[in-house]
């Protein structure tokens, strides 16, 4: 399947806690506002995605499962004085009745304090109980789950381009207890995007408006099920936003529920290619090229080296970097696997025990 790598001006969809109401210092093109109401006198149908104009019942059902997430950080000034200040805002999704909330890792990254504000207006202190930085996901916990209603998790493998998509979140941190709602469609599937934290595989692209502050919030289907976690926007485009497929997030949640950490091989990878093979004198031009092997990692302990090319993972063919990343993500820490790689023109096979990603 052909993948599009989007690496230019991609912004993680977070926002500072302080909203600047002055004119933004950016270059935009104003567009004429056109009514969404048909110009004919024919009454529009209300069945199916084409008639999805009134989504207020869906919003009323979902709003108790969407929360604003804000963080404070300890800041040290040039005189060495420290103080705790608001540092960012995002969104979260209530996933159970025990007070657990799914959000983006970058929403809570480097936080000294995390606060969750629900539709009831109550600000709740939150604790980060699990994080998967590579997948840009984190799980929070609040002690008071009163009035927090978990949202149903859908199946992101079943969605199609053109399906309805609804984004709900703390856009621009305008009002923590009254999230912003936007409506659009699934614009594309299987995007590969580069963010400040790394690569997001199989991202969902949508034209439902996603803005700073939406990060960690739900992308819903027409049935009100979470199909993605909104995470990034293309800063040099309009109405191009991206969400992590909920099925990818389910793997992280499953490990959290089982008390298992995130898998870690200890390598950086890129796609192998004819150009790379020619430059590095490799005998193949496909596979996952190891661009870095981290000292002390599982990969390092079995002797893997920079510019080795992984071609199979537990008997499954690896044709590019995404294949290897997905294979690692599907493996639990402590599991032994057989890994075949090419070094120059030599094929080697090693048994490797997948490690656990260090806490960040």
Describe the structure.
This protein is mainly beta. The protein folds into two domains: 1-18 and 53-259, Thrombin, subunit H, CATH 2.40.10; 263-356, Pdz3 Domain (Roll). The protein has six helices and 22 strands. A hairpin with a 5-residue loop joins strand 6 (113-117) and strand 7 (123-132). It is globular and about 60 Å long. Mean pLDDT is 86; it is low at 1-9 and 15-50.
How many separate domains? 2
Widest beta sheet: strand line-up: 9-10-11-14-13-12
The CATH topology of the largest domain is: Thrombin, subunit H
Mean pLDDT: 86
Order of helices and strands: EEHEEEHEEEEEEEEEHEEHEHEEHEEE
Strand content: 35-45%
End-to-end gap: 33 Å
Which structural category fits the helices and strands? mainly beta
Q: Write down how many β-strands occur, each being a DSSP E stretch of 2 or more residues.
A: 22
CATH class of the largest domain: Mainly Beta
Shape: globular
Number of helices: 6
Estimated radius of gyration: 22 Å
Which architecture of the largest domain per CATH? Beta Barrel
Low-confidence parts: 1-9, 15-50
Main beta-sheet annotation: 6 strands, antiparallel, barrel
Helix proportion: 10-25%
């Amino acid at each position: 399947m052909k993948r599009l790598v989007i690496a230019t001006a991609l912004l993680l969809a977070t926002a500072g806690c302080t909203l600047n109401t002055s004119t933004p210092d950016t270059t935009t093109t104003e567009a004429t506002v056109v009514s969404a109401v048909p110009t004919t006198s024919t009454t529009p149908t209300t069945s199916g995605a084409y008639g999805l104009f009134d989504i207020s019942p869906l919003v009323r059902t979902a709003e108790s499962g969407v929360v604003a997430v804000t963080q404070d950080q300890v800041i040290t000034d040039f005189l060495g004085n420290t103080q705790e200040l608001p540092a960012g805002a995002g969104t979260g999704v209530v996933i159970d009745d025990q007070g657990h909330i799914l959000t983006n890792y970058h929403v809570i990254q480097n936080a000294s304090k995390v606060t969750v504000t629900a539709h009831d207006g109550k600000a709740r202190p939150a604790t980060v109980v699990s994080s998967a930085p590579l997948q840009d996901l984190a799980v929070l916990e609040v002690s008071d789950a009163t009035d927090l209603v978990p949202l149903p998790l859908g199946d992101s493998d079943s969605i199609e381009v053109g399906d309805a998509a609804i984004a709900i979140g703390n856009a621009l941190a305008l009002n923590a207890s009254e999230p912003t709602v936007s409506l659009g469609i699934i614009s594309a599937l299987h995007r590969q995007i580069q963010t400040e934290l790394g690569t997001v595989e199989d991202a969902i692209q949508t034209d439902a408006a996603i803005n700073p502050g939406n990060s960690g919030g739900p992308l819903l289907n027409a049935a009100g099920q979470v199909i993605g976690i909104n995470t990034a926007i293309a800063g040099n485009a309009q109405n191009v936003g991206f969400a992590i497929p909920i099925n990818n997030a389910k793997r992280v949640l499953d490990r959290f529920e089982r008390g298992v950490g995130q898998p870690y091989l200890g390598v950086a990878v890129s796609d192998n290619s004819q150009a790379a093979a020619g430059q590095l004198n490799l005998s193949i031009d496909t596979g996952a090229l190891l661009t870095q092997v981290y000292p002390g990692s599982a990969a390092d302990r079995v002797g893997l080296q920079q510019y080795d090319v992984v071609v199979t993972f537990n008997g499954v063919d690896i044709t590019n970097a995404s294949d290897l990343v997905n294979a690692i993500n599907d493996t639990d820490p402590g599991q032994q696997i057989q890994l075949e790689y090419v070094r120059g023109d030599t094929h080697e096979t090693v048994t490797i025990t997948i490690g656990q990603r260090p806490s960040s």
